[in-house]
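tool_call: predict_structure(chain=1)
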Amino acid sequence: MARKGADYIGTMEVQEKHRFDELSLGRFMAAHVEGFVPPVRAEQFRGGQSNPTYRLEDLGPQQDQRPHAAGLRVVRG
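tool_result:
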């Protein structure tokens, strides 16, 4: 059965197969992204499982981690 559009809306807990070390990511982001305040909390956007995309929250402004040709792009909310 085909998935419906609603299956691709919003975020969810990061799937086990896509988990990563949030503490290490928070330390890295704090060292390399001005204004990033750890700890970081990650959620996974629904759909797109061949190219998972994450919503990252820290104690500062909201941010999205989006893969693109040059690596990661941080979008400040």
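agent: The first helix runs from residue 22 to 32. Proceeding to next step.
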